[in-house]
What does this fold into?
Amino acid sequence: MKRSRMLVGVPLAIVLALGVTPALTGCGIEGIVKDATGGNVDIGGKKVPADFPSAVPLYDGDVVLGASVGSGDAEVWNVTVKLLDAKAYQDIQKQLADAGFTGEFGATSPDGGGTGTFASDAYGVLVVVTSAGINGWVANYSVSRTPASTPAPTP
It folds into this structure.
């Protein structure tokens, strides 16, 4: 991944995880990110992006926010889903393992939730389960293609 995409992708993932993107959309954040990355930006609101990889299972909850940045091999997706409770990370880990992903939640907090990294031959997934205050618990999925799944350029 090019450094410029990474530098924009990380802050964008943080903004998306905090759920403040809807407030920024009116200020032209999609245009700013598109200009910085040279790629497509889809801050789709409360739905999973249309091209979100079907190989990555999502927890069955209301979508709080869905977005994608970039295009082709450099596209990344971010989806935030509402959870029943803090212990949902156990179900998320099982779903990903059942779908062929390796990894686990390496850090969990005493009140529940946690952070996990998972990988398959095609995708890398970072999942953060956290409290959203009075709105309950959410899981934020940041998904990118793994370098091995990106075809080499043709000479």
Remarks:
- The helical segments are 3-18, 21-25, 29-37, 88-98.
- DSSP finds four helices and seven strands in the chain.
- The mean pLDDT is 77.
- The first strand starts at residue 41 and ends at 45.
